[in-house]
UniProtKB/TrEMBL annotation:
PANTHER family: DNA INTERNALIZATION/COMPETENCE PROTEIN COMEC/REC2, RECOMBINATION PROTEIN 2. This is ComEC/Rec2 family competence protein. It comes from the Bacteria. It is found in: Cell membrane. Residues 623-719 form the Metallo-beta-lactamase domain. It holds the Pfam family Lactamase_B. The chain crosses the membrane at residues 60-81, 102-122, 297-316, 323-339, 368-385, 391-409, 421-441, 453-477, 515-536, 582-601.
C-alpha cells in the first residue's frame, strides 16, 4: 500500500522524535561560520575619507558632502527600483541569481556611500566649528593672543633642545575664546600649548586663561594652532566635581606607591591609570624596544582586564543578566573617568570591549562587523582619529585578535597544548599585525616583542587590577592602599625587569627600511612567512621530507616513542631515513637563507644606510633633532661638525663609518642639540683639535663642554672668520663666527668663553669645506641676521660663492634668507632634523632650496646617508627618499 502524503514509506528509516541525527545516519561535517566582511569596505572607505577630510578646508569638505549625498540618492533610488522589479517579475533561475548578485553589490555601494557621507557631514561640522573662532587666521599671522580654554590632556614634560634642560611642558586646551589683533571672539577646536613648568601643576579639566604667540598647525593636525605661552596660566575655573575626585585618586596613588622600588614606583601608576610621569627615558626606551609600551598607554587590554574581572565577579555572585550589564557599564564608565576621558581612551574602551567579546565567544563572524561599526562611529565622532597611530594600532590589533587568535591557537594546540597555544597566539597575532605600522614610527623590528609580551603577560592582570583597587582605596584607607600597592608594584617591577632584560639582548631591534615602502615590505614578508608556516606540509614535501602523520595530530607517534627511547636512538633513526636528495635540498635551502641574510637585509651588516659605499665623501648622521655631519679626510679619519643631542647616536654613527680619529671637531655653538652627544663621540677615538664658537650661550653648556675637552687633553681653539687649514686632501675655512673671539685662557691653559644670555644661533661657526669631489657650507643654526651677513660676505668674495652642498640652517626652520640660498645655489641641501614640536623642517625652507635648484635630503626621512661622487656627478647612498 502506498504511503499517504506527508507520511514516510514503510521501509524508510525513522529518525528520533526530538529531531536529532539518527544514530545510523552518516556523520555530517561540522558547520563553519563564514566571517562577515560586509562592513569592512565601509570602515576602510570611512577611514580614507576621514584622512582626506582632516587635511581639507571647510569648503572642500562641504563640496564633497554634497557630491557624495548625490551619489547616495542615485544609488539608493536604483536599488529601490531593482527591488520593486524583482517583486513584480519572474525570470529564470540563472537570470534571477545574476540580478540578486547585482542587487547585493548595489546594496554594498549604498552602505559604503552612506558611511562615507556620515563621516563627511560630521567632519564638515567639525571643520566649520574649528575655523569659526579665527584662531587659524591669527596663527598664520603669528599674532600675540589671549586665550581661554579647558585643559583636556595630561601635561608632558619636554627637553629643551637648545639647553638640554627639561623646562618645557606640552598640553592641550579646548578653546572657548580667543582675543588677538584688537578683536575677541568665541572659538572652537583644540589648541596645543608649549609652556614653562608651571603649567604642569594645572589640574586636568581646569579652565585657564593664558597669553602667548600663536603658530600655525601642520595640515591634518586636530589642533587649530600651537600656543607658545609667555607665562603661567590663570586658572579661572576648577575641574567639575567628578574630575576633581579623579585627580585626587590619581594623586593618592602616587603617594601610596612612593615607597616601592624604583621601577615599580615608576611603572605602577602607568599600568593602573596611565600616569607615565615617573617613567625615565631608559625604562621608556626598554618598553619601546620590547613592544611593551601598551602596558602604560591605556589600551584595549586594560579595558578587557577590567571587564573580565567585573564579569567574573558578577558570575560568582550569580547576578541576573540585567544586573551584570548595568554593573559592567557603570564600572567601564568609571574607569574611563579614572584614566581621563581623552579620545584615545574612549577609542581604547570601544576596541577593548569588541576584542574581549570576539575572543571570549570565539565568534569572529560577529566581532569583525562590530569592530568595523565601531571604527565608523568613532570616525564620525572624531575624524582626526584617522591620522592617529594609536587608532591604527588599536584597530589593527583588535581585528587581528578577533580574527586570528582562534585559528592560530587551534594550529598550535596539538604541538604545545591548548592553554599555552592560546597564551602564545594573542601576542603573536597582535605583533604580526602591528609590526608594519610600527615600522612607520621607528624603522626597526622588535625582535623579542612576542616572547617579552608572553613573559610579561601574567603580571599585567594583577598589576592592573590591584593598582586600580589601590587607587580607589587610597583616599579613605591609605594603609590598605599601601598593602594593595606592594603586590601590584611587584607585578609592575616584573614587567619592567622583562623589558630591561629583553632590551639588553643582542639584536633586540633589527634595522628595517622606514616609510611606506618599508611597511609594505614587512607586511609582504610576514604574509609569506605565514603562508609557509600554514602550509608547512607542502613546504616539507618540496625539500624531500615525507610527513607521515595527519593534519592536526601534533607531534608524530614515532617521535614520541623516539624521545622515550632516548635522543640517541631518535637521531640514529633519523640518519637512517636520510637520503642524498634530502641533504641536497637542505643545502640549497641553507644557501638561499644565507643569500637572503647577506643581500636582502644589508642594513644588518651596514647600519649606516642601504648600500653606503666605502668611498663616501660626506655623511649626515641621523642624530634625531640635532646636527651631526662628517667629512671624510682619509681612511678611518674625518672632520666632524657637531655631535647631536645627548645620547650615543653620533658616536654610533662614527663607529659605523669606521672613524677612529677626528682631525678636526667643530662645535658650531653650545646648544644641547649640537653638543649633547660629545661624550659618545670622544669615547673610543682620538681627536686632534676642536674648534668652538666664542659665545658661551648657554653658559652651563659651554662650561661642561670646554671642561670635558680639556680633561681629555684635546686642544681647543675659538673660531674666527678667515681661519682655515688643510686635512689631507680636504681644506676648510671659517666663513663666519658671530661676534668673534671673546675667550680667555686661565693659568692652566684652559679656555673660557664669554658668557651670554641669547645670541647663540647667530654666533654659530659657519664652515666652508672643500674636497676633491665637492664643496660644502655648514650653516649651523644661523638666524636671519646671521644669514644675511654671510650672504653679503660671500657676494663680496672673488670667484663666486656657489657650492655643491649646503647643510640648511636651524634644521630647516621657517627663518631662511632667500638671498643666501640664491648665492650658494647648491645642488644638494641637507636638512638634519628629527621628531620635534617646532615643525622642522618647514615647507617654506624646503620650497626655498628646491627653488634654488637643490635636491632635498632629510635625516628624519633618510636616516643616516652619505654623498659620493660617480663619474663627476654627486650621488646619494643610503636614502631612498628625501
Amino acid at each position: 500500500m502506498a504511503a499517504s502524503p506527508g507520511q514516510p514509506s514503510p521501509g524508510a528509516a525513522r529518525g528520533p522524535l526530538d529531531g536529532s541525527r539518527h544514530p545510523l545516519a552518516p556523520a555530517r561535517p561540522p558547520r563553519t561560520t563564514a566571517t562577515d566582511l560586509r562592513l569592512v569596505p565601509a570602515a576602510l572607505a570611512s577611514w580614507g575619507t576621514a584622512w582626506w577630510l582632516t587635511a581639507a578646508d571647510a569648503r572642500a569638505a562641504l563640496a564633497g558632502t554634497v557630491l557624495v549625498a548625490g551619489v547616495l540618492v542615485y544609488a539608493g533610488s536604483w536599488l529601490l527600483v531593482t527591488s520593486r522589479t524583482r517583486r513584480s517579475s519572474h525570470h529564470s533561475t540563472r537570470r534571477s541569481s545574476r540580478r540578486a548578485a547585482g542587487r547585493a553589490w548595489l546594496g554594498q555601494c549604498v552602505l559604503v556611500t552612506g558611511c562615507v557621507l556620515a563621516v563627511l557631514a560630521a567632519g564638515s561640522v567639525h571643520l566649520v566649528a574649528r575655523d569659526a573662532g579665527g584662531a587659524a587666521v591669527l596663527a598664520a599671522r603669528g599674532a600675540a593672543v589671549e586665550v581661554v580654554g579647558k585643559v583636556v590632556a595630561e601635561s608632558v614634560t619636554v627637553a629643551n633642545p637648545w639647553s638640554g634642560a627639561v623646562d618645557t611642558v606640552r598640553t592641550t586646551l579646548t578653546l572657548s575664546a580667543v582675543q588677538g589683533r584688537g578683536a575677541a571672539a568665541p572659538a572652537g577646536g583644540h589648541l596645543d600649548v608649549l609652556a614653562d613648568l608651571t603649567w604642569g601643576d594645572v589640574a586636568y579639566g581646569s579652565e585657564v586663561r593664558a597669553s602667548g604667540t600663536l603658530a600655525p598647525a601642520d595640515a591634518g593636525d586636530k589642533a587649530t594652532a600651537t600656543l607658545v605661552a609667555t607665562g603661567p596660566p590663570l586658572v579661572t575655573a576648577p575641574p567639575v566635581t567628578p574630575l576633581r575626585a579623579v585627580n585626587a585618586l590619581r594623586a593618592d596613588l602616587l603617594t601610596v606607591s612612593e615607597g616601592l622600588p624604583t621601577d615599580a614606583r615608576a611603572l605602577l601608576p602607568g599600568v593602573a591609570v596611565g600616569d607615565t610621569s615617573r617613567i625615565d627615558d631608559e625604562l621608556d626606551a626598554a618598553l619601546r624596544t620590547t613592544g611593551l609600551t601598551h602596558v602604560t598607554a591605556v589600551s584595549g587590554g586594560h579595558f578587557a582586564i577590567v571587564v573580565a574581572t567585573v564579569t567574573a565577579l558578577c558570575a560568582v555572585a550569580r547576578a541576573p543578566r540585567g544586573v551584570r550589564l548595568a554593573v559592567t557599564g557603570t564600572v567601564m564608565a568609571g574607569f574611563v573617568l579614572l584614566v581621563h576621558p581623552d579620545p584615545s581612551v574612549l577609542r581604547a574602551a570601544a576596541m577593548g570591549v569588541v576584542g574581549l567579546v570576539g575572543i571570549g565567544l570565539g565568534r569572529p563572524s560577529r566581532a569583525l562587523p562590530a569592530l568595523a561599526a565601531v571604527v565608523v562611529v568613532l570616525l564620525v565622532l572624531d575624524p582626526w582619529l584617522a591620522r592617529s597611530y594609536g587608532f591604527v594600532l588599536s584597530s589593527v590589533a583588535t581585528a587581528a585578535l578577533v580574527v586570528g587568535t582562534q585559528p592560530v591557537a587551534r594550529r598550535l594546540a596539538p604541538w604545545i597544548g591548548k592553554v599555552p597555544a592560546f597564551a602564545l597566539a594573542v601576542p603573536l597575532t597582535a605583533q604580526l599585525a602591528c609590526a608594519p605600522v610600527l615600522v612607520l614610527l621607528d624603522p626597526s623590528v622588535a625582535t623579542y616583542a612576542v616572547p617579552a609580551n608572553l613573559v610579561a603577560a601574567p603580571a599585567l592582570f594583577p598589576a592592573t587590577v590591584l593598582g586600580v583597587l589601590a587607587t580607589l582605596v587610597a583616599p579613605w584607607f591609605p594603609g590598605g592602599a599601601t598593602v594593595l600597592a606592594w603586590p601590584a608594584g611587584l607585578a609592575a617591577w616584573w614587567i619592567a625587569a622583562v623589558a630591561r632584560s629583553f632590551a639588553g639582548l643582542p639584536g633586540a631591534r633589527v634595522p628595517w627600511p622606514g616609510g611606506p615602502g618599508g611597511a609594505v615590505a614587512l607586511a609582504l614578508v610576514t604574509l609569506v612567512a605565514l603562508v609557509l608556516v600554514w602550509r608547512w606540509r607542502w613546504v616539507a614535501g618540496l625539500v624531500g621530507w615525507r610527513v607521515a602523520w595527519s593534519r592536526g595530530s601534533g607531534w608524530p607517534h614515532t617521535w614520541r616513542t623516539a624521545v622515550r627511547a632516548g635522543l640517541r636512538e631518535a637521531f640514529a633513526a633519523r640518519r637512517r631515513r636520510a637520503t642524498m636528495r634530502l641533504v641536497a635540498a637542505w643545502a640549497v635551502a641553507a644557501g638561499v637563507a644565507a643569500c637572503c641574510v647577506l643581500l636582502a637585509w644589508p642594513r644588518w651588516i651596514a647600519p649606516v644606510g642601504r648600500d653606503v659605499p666605502a668611498d663616501w665623501v660626506v655623511a649626515a648622521c641621523d642624530v634625531g633633532q640635532g646636527d651631526g655631519l662628517v667629512v671624510r679626510t682619509g681612511d678611518g679619519r674625518g672632520l666632524a661638525i657637531d655631535v647631536g643631542p645627548a645620547g650615543d647616536a653620533a658616536g654610533t654613527c662614527l663607529d659605523e663609518l669606521g672613524i677612529e680619529r677626528l682631525d678636526l671637531l667643530v662645535l658650531t655653538h653650545f646648544h644641547a642639540d649640537h653638543v649633547g652627544g660629545l661624550a659618545a663621540v670622544l669615547d673610543g677615538r682620538e681627536v686632534d683639535r676642536a674648534l668652538v664658537t666664542g659665545l658661551g650661550d648657554p653658559a652651563e653648556q659651554a662650561g661642561w663642554v670646554l671642561s670635558d675637552l680639556a680633561d681629555r687633553g684635546i686642544p681647543v681653539e675659538v673660531a674666527a672668520a678667515g681661519v682655515g687649514g688643510v686635512l689631507g686632501d680636504v681644506s676648510w675655512e671659517v666663513l663666519q663666527a658671530g661676534e668673534g673671539d671673546r675667550a680667555t685662557r686661565g693659568t692652566d691653559g684652559r679656555l673660557t668663553v664669554a658668557e651670554a644670555d641669547g645670541g647663540a644661533n647667530d654666533a654659530s661657526v659657519t664652515l666652508l669645506v672643500t674636497t676633491p669631489a665637492l664643496s660644502l657650507v655648514a650653516l649651523g643654526d644661523l638666524e636671519l641676521p646671521g644669514q644675511e651677513s654671510l650672504d653679503r660676505t660671500l657676494r663680496a668674495r672673488a670667484g663666486g660663492a656657489a657650492v655643491d652642498v649646503v647643510k640648511v640652517a636651524h634644521h630647516g626652520s621657517r627663518v631662511q634668507s632667500p638671498g643666501l640660498a640664491a648665492t650658494l645655489s647648491p645642488a644638494v641641501a641637507i636638512v638634519s632634523s628629527g621628531e620635534n614640536t617646532y615643525g622642522h623642517p618647514t615647507d617654506e625652507a624646503l620650497d626655498l632650496y628646491r627653488g634654488a635648484g637643490a635636491a632635498i635630503l632629510r635625516t628624519d626621512r633618510c636616516g643616516t646617508f652619505a654623498l659620493v661622487e660617480r663619474a663627476g656627478e654627486l650621488a646619494v647612498a643610503g636614502c631612498a627618499q628625501g
